[in-house]
Write a structure and sequence with these properties.
Blueprint lengths: L3 E3 L4 E2 L4 E2 L2 E2 L4 H6 L4 E2 L2 E3 L4 E2 L4 E2 L4 E2 L4 E2 L4 E2 L7 E5 L2 E6 L2
Length: about 100
């Protein structure tokens, strides 16, 4: 539905999900239009994505970021940070 762009030297654990498909939050549009929507995902260079992470539509993960196992990434993650949780948030800057 939408592109997934993956940078160089990206590592992913098992069962990572990169989900680009989405739909309207308006019930009438969703149920009767038949419209399928998609938002691209961009993963930078040298990113490490832990096991079981779900990356939602429209998210960008910056270069050299680390995403903790089991996280649900609903918003953009800046470069050079460790982020984790549901929803995923920045825990610390990687030195």
């Amino acid at each position: 539905v939408a592109p997934v762009i993956i940078g160089d030297n990206v590592m992913c654990g098992p069962k990572v999900q990169l989900l680009t498909a989405t739909h309207s939050v308006n019930a009438e549009e969703r149920n009767f239009s038949g419209t399928e929507l998609g938002k691209p995902i961009v993963i930078g260079n040298r990113v490490w994505i832990g096991a079981g992470v779900i990356v939602c539509p429209g998210v960008t993960i910056g270069d050299e970021a680390v995403i903790g196992a089991g996280s649900v990434v609903t918003r953009d993650i800046p470069p050079g940070v460790f982020a984790a949780g549901n929803p995923c948030k920045v825990i610390k800057v990687i030195e």
